[in-house]
Each structure stands twice: as structure tokens, then as C-alpha cells.
């Protein structure tokens, strides 16, 4: 892998990461900053964070294929890669059908988009695919550096590694809540997990493939499901849960601190003592 993500990174909404936070995350020793929430295809924010730091990788998690065309995104990638070699990973994906009126044949859209990225010179090793199911996981091994699954468990990571084989990037996202009060932690984790993800068909189908029932997924999610998707406890407990992805075959885990509107730095500082 030309791009070095390290074992652990952070995942934040792209407009919630400024240069100051990026510098602090780099100082803590995390290997990557994943920018979620469909960052704009000009990737200006990515470039700003790379300019402010010296070694950490910035990745998009993800640029939405329906909202930003491949030639624009490809040109942005080439600009950034020229200025910051081996420090940017372009994560792309199709999102979910409920969000796009034009959402049709997502697999064909992915293939077409990757073809266009090829045409403008974006190398396979410079990009990752949002992937949950077997078909897109296989494509991520064939046409990208690897896969960036979102809202998953170590069980999914284990299955994904078996499907991808060795030598292919597997970088799942994991939500965490640093709180030893279980009820309070679930009250923090449940809203951003339930809305929108537990209502979206691709995430529901993935959870059902992993053995979760409709009753686990409906009505805000069972406590057992929320506990797996939003790890909670003290820093040592949460870090141990994050490590389970590595033990299951992940190369890298992107950690999303909840609640989303709170300052994530205390969580990342506490976890760094156990992970880095």
C-alpha cells in the first residue's frame, strides 16, 4: 500500500474537522483522518487539512458518486496527490437509494465511475470503495486499494476479510461512546445509529446477513445491537472492542466519537493511550 493509514484513524463529518483538530490528531499518533458526510468533489477541505499537517493521511469516507462526477473528483485527486504524495486516499461510494431520486443499478454506477476515474488517471491504489455486501467487496479488491465498510461489527470484518483475501485494504468504521453508564451511553449512540442508518435498506440487509433480526433493527435498535455498533465503556474497554476489528482481519479502523456535536478530542486522547 502506497498510502499509510496506520492501524487506527478517526472518522468525522468533513465540516467538523478543522486544521487545529487535524494537527492534534496527528500529534496523538493516529494514522488517518476520514472525512465523512459526502465532502464536496473539489476536495478543497482535504487539501487544507493536508497543508496544515505533515505526515497524517486524509481519506474521504465517502465522496458520493451521485453528487460529484468522476472527472471533477479525479482532477481534484490528481491535484492533491501531486502536492501531497501518498497522503490522500479517495474513498468513493454510491450512498443509499433512499437519498437519490436517480439511484438506479448501483453496481453499474460504481463500475462506470471507476472506469471514468481510470480514464483521468486516478490509480486503483489511490482509492477505496464503500462496501458492505460480497459483490462490492469483491469489486473493491479488483478495482481499488480495498474497502471501507461503515456501520459494521467485527463479525462483518471477519467475513469481509475472507471475501477480500490478503493484501487488500480493509478499513471499517466503528462508533464509540466513552461512558461507563450503559443506559446513558445507549441514549447517546442510538439516535445517530437509528436515524438514518437503521431505516436504510443497504444497512438493514447487511445487519440481517450478520444474523441480526428485524426486531433487533426496528424501533431504534435493540440494546444488544446498539452496544455492538456504538461501543461504550471506559477507554480501556472501548479500545479492546476496537481492537477486535484488527483481530478479525482489518488493516485499519476508523473511529467515530459520539456524540457527534461534542468535541471529539477528549475521546481520541483517551483512546490513544490504549491504541497508539
From TrEMBL:
* Coiled coil feature spans: none
What's the protein here called? LLM class F420-dependent oxidoreductase
What GO annotations for molecular function exist for this entry?
A: oxidoreductase activity
Q: Which UniProt keywords apply?
A: Oxidoreductase
For this protein, the Enzyme Commission number is 1.-.-.-
InterPro entries cross-referenced by the UniProt entry: Bact_Lucif_Oxidored, Lucif-like_OxRdatse_MSMEG_4141, Luciferase-like_sf
Question: Source species, please?
Answer: Prauserella salsuginis
